Amino acid sequence: MLRSTVRVLGARDLEAAVDVCASDPVSHAFVSSRLVGGLLGEAGHAEVWGYHERGELVSLCWVGANMVPVEAGGEAADAFAARARSAPRRSSSLFGPRDDVLRLWAGLEQAWGPAREVRRDQPLMVCGEPAVGVDPYVRRTRPDELDTLFPASVAMFTEEIGYSPVGLDGGAAYKAGVAEMVALGRSFVRIDLDEHGDPEVVFKAELGAVTGAIAQIQGVWVAPHRRGEGLAVPAVAAVVRAVRDDLGARSSLYVNDYNERAVHVYEQVGFERHGSFATVLL
Description:
Layout lengths: L5 E3 L5 H8 L7 H8 L10 E7 L2 E8 L2 E5 L4 H11 L7 E5 H15 L4 E11 L11 E2 L5 H16 L10 H12 L3 E7 L5 E12 L3 E9 L9 H16 L2 E5 L5 H10 L2 E10 L1
Parallel strand pairs: 4-5, 10-11
Antiparallel strand pairs: 1-2, 2-3, 3-4, 5-12, 6-11, 6-12, 7-8, 8-9, 9-10
């Protein structure tokens, strides 16, 4: 009975799907940005599953490389898990609002587990205006700086996820994704000269999801040998300021609860708690 309430959404469902995301623009920025980007029902991209109650669309689940529930508590999460168990797994992670993700994972763990890691409480934070001065050297990455940026991106990914994104293709696919962020103007860096006079990235961040209201910051990283110098607070503040000035949006991000240093940095910038995310790495 639960499975019958779920179907793959198409272009005709766009308005209703956007309305579901609008119930919490901060929590649902990732899926909302994909819908606004015109990916609903487009061949080759992730599917969006919809859960209906009395004929009304009330919950969504983005299903691709990531599985991301939207307003999917209770029976909706159970229905999405049942559908996922009946098809080959295509997702390497689950993330989103904490209670929805953990309920969804409870229905999938026996079939998909064990997980490499379950991050059960990741503060979701939001900021409209930085509370501190901004770093004037933080700016958008230029296309000609891709080769300078790429090692920093690999280091950030490896540190955060636990393995290198450079696989059998030598990192070509990952580098293409980094290049796309640069081309879209969503990559920010501070580049200083090292002891040999060569450019090196000492701070980086990206906007992983952008809607009319929210830009979700991800991939925040400071070069290890420059940590402890106070770079992070004004650098993140510069990204928040750019989001406000250039996009007219608020900035959001989520962070591991055990990373107390990062939480403190974001609080200094002016971020406030909005809710909790969870992430399951497969």
